[in-house]
Amino acid sequence: MARIVYRDTSNQEVVIQLNASSPEVSVGRNPNNTIRLQNASISRNHATISFQGGQCILKDLGSSNGCYVNGKRVQSQALTDGDKIRCGEYPLEFFEDAPAVASPNP
Questions:
Q1: pTM beyond 0.90
Q2: Which of 50, 83, 90, 99 has its CA 20 to 30 A from that of 6?
Q3: Where are the domains of the chain?
Q4: Helix or strand or coil: residue 22?
Q5: Residue 82, by phi and psi: left (phi above 0), alpha (psi -120 to 50) or beta?
Q6: What angle do CA 59, 57, 38 make, to 5 degrees?
Q7: CA distances (Å), 40 to each of 14, 28, 29, 89, in order?
Q8: Cβ(66)–Cβ(88) under 8 Å?
Q9: pLDDT tens across 67-105, in order?
Q10: Mind listing the pLDDT tens digit for each residue in 20-69?
Q11: How does DSSP assign 45-106, residue by residue?
Q12: Which of 37, 58, 35, 34 is nearest to 48 (CA)?
């Protein structure tokens, strides 16, 4: 399980939960995107985040202002716990939740 955390245009924290069966999360200004960011630095269809081979992958969709992970511009990047993502000028954070551990039987 993983989470994308960001603040919407009214400064409210939003959490998007992701897992291997989740649909792809899309980021952009287009109203059809999962994460809709009304900011001039965001392209209509800016990026996607999806599970591939057990990892969450951020993919830039040819945006004008790019995608950054921990300050480095990327086209496609596997995300790890605590990564700071920036789409254009808009910050998001990625968190991996630790897998549930079964309690030992008494």
A1: no
A2: 99
A3: 2-96
A4: coil
A5: left
A6: 50
A7: 20, 10, 9, 9
A8: yes
A9: 999 999 999 999 999 999 999 999 999 999 865 545 555
A10: 888 899 999 999 999 999 889 999 999 999 988 889 999 999 999 999 99
A11: T-EEEEEETTEEEEEE-S-SS-EEETTEEESEEE--TT-EEEETTEEEEEEEPPPP-PPPP-
A12: 58
Instruction: Report how far residue 21's alpha carbon sits from residue 31's, in angstroms, rounded to the nearest whole number.
Output: 23
Tell me the three state secondary structure of residue 20: coil
From the list 63, 65, 68, the residue with the least C-alpha distance to 91 is 68
Biggest CA–CA distance in the chain, Å, is 58
Q: Which residue is it, tokens 């989470």? A: 3
Q: Can you tell me whether residue 11 is helix, strand or coil?
A: coil
User: Parallel, antiparallel, or unpaired: how do β-strands 67-69 and 55-60 relate?
Assistant: unpaired
CB atoms within 10 A of CB 90: 19
